[in-house]
Design goal:
Blueprint lengths: L1 E4 L14 H9 L3 E5 L10 H7 L2 E3 L2 H7 L2 E3 L17 E4 L7 H9 L3 E4 L14 H20 L7 E3 L2 E3 L3 E5 L3 H12 L3 E5 L6 H6 L3 E2 L20 H17 L2 E4 L14 H5 L6 E4 L16 E4 L2 E4 L9 H18 L1 E2 L4 E2 L6 H6 E4 L2 E2 L5
Parallel strand pairs: 1-2, 1-4, 2-3, 4-5, 5-6, 9-10, 9-12, 10-11, 12-13, 13-15
Antiparallel strand pairs: 6-18, 7-8, 14-15, 16-17, 18-19
Helix pairs in contact: 1-2, 1-10, 5-6, 5-10
Length: about 375
């Protein structure tokens, strides 16, 4: 089986889909891997390192895409490149199937079997392939580091001859993968951390990291079978905002992580709530790429709203691209290995497997999920 790995072309993207150790693992299983020259340049990996791992290197991107039985990517493919893919081939990357209907339909029209790495189920067996979680983990870390760098205070408590400095107060909204890493990072830096989540089930996890769980009675809430928070009603969102207003006003840093799978992120922080926050406070909106949790935040910008700095930078994992690439490459490699036929030395698309059923977006010329 010929596996093709093209360079990422999304503006500003430094992460890469496959690193040499993963190439080595797949080559030893019998895969033939061709990469586009310069694939690893953004994180300091040379073409020579890929060659040593057993990959072929080409400068002809169109030929690479047209010859590959399996294409491994990080970002979704550009619409104009789908026509260059081999009919009947398999394409694996992050996709946005619920919001990019034209791309999904084009993949189906070309008879491409497309797998979205963002739809890996949250099961024990699939944990090593869960790219959404691996990247969210890093986003939570980066969010805290950004806030610490921009805040005009230090995080830890200090008792010195010059007086006592009280710890920075950090309020984290959402205790999913990104939120939990943000908690751990803020605590390691010495902050006092408060956390709110609509799912009471995460309270114990929050407390185990040394943070205080803020309880707001929203009535019936919960999570999906995959562990994602369920959408709140407009009435519940308003109760949540009122309950969080006090915590926000007392905090130096607020980090929002609330996202809904396949849907626009809910507005959690309104301009009225921001107006009550301390001058010089920092807000990091981790959901800015899916619509944003913060009223007034802008994608890839930092804006000032009445003395509060709103950070809406996208692709936070890309700011630690070397480790983000390492983790995604391991996720991708684990996915391929899970369905690798040792005798035939190729990838077997097991349509009745729970992981394939969860991630397969197009197959045999058809769109397999409902898109909007």
């Amino acid at each position: 089986m010929n596996i093709g790995v093209p360079k990422e072309t999304h503006p500003g993207e430094k992460r890469i889909p496959l690193i040499p150790p993963s190439v080595d693992r797949l080559v030893k299983k019998g895969a033939q891997i061709t990469i586009e020259n310069g694939l690893g340049t953004t994180i300091g990996i040379s073409d020579e390192e890929y060659k040593k791992a057993g990959a072929s290197v080409t400068s002809n991107r169109k030929t690479l895409l047209g010859a590959a039985d399996l294409v491994l990517r990080l970002r979704k493919p550009p619409l104009e490149e789908i026509s260059q893919l081999k009919s009947g081939s398999l394409h694996v990357s992050f996709l946005d199937p619920f919001n990019d209907r034209s791309l999904v339909e084009e993949l189906a029209k070309k008879n491409i079997s497309a797998v979205s790495m963002g739809m890996i189920p949250r099961s024990t067996r699939a944990q090593k392939m869960d790219a959404l979680s691996s990247q969210a983990n890093l986003a939570g870390y980066v969010a805290v580091i950004l806030a610490a760098e921009r805040l005009n205070k230090i995080f830890p408590m200090l008792t010195t001859p010059a007086g006592t400095i009280m710890p920075t107060r950090v309020f984290i909204i959402g205790a999913g993968v990104a939120g939990l890493q943000a908690i751990a990072t803020a605590k390691r830096l010495g902050a006092r951390v408060d956390v709110f989540d609509t799912r009471p089930v995460v309270k114990e996890q929050v407390q185990s990291l040394g943070a205080r769980f803020v309880e707001i009675d929203l009535g019936e809430t919960g999570q999906t079978k995959d562990g994602y928070a369920k959408a709140l009603t407009p009435e519940q969102l308003e109760i949540q905002r009122r309950g969080m207003a006090k915590a926000c006003s007392q905090s130096d840093v607020v980090i929002t992580t609330a996202q809904l799978f396949g849907r626009k992120a809910p507005i959690i922080l309104t301009k009225e709530m921001i107006a009550q926050m301390k001058h010089g406070s920092i807000v990091v909106d981790l959901a800015v790429e899916s619509g944003g949790n913060v009223e007034g935040s802008r994608l890839n910008e930092e804006v000032d709203i009445k003395g509060v700095r709103i950070i809406g930078l996208g692709n936070l994992p890309g700011r630690v691209a070397a480790h983000a690439s390492q983790m995604y490459s391991n996720n991708l490699c684990a996915f391929v290995e899970e369905f690798w036929d040792k005798e035939q030395k190729n990838f077997r698309l097991k349509l009745d497997d729970e992981i394939i059923k969860s991630t397969l977006v197009t197959h045999n010329g058809k769109v397999l999920i409902h898109t909007s």
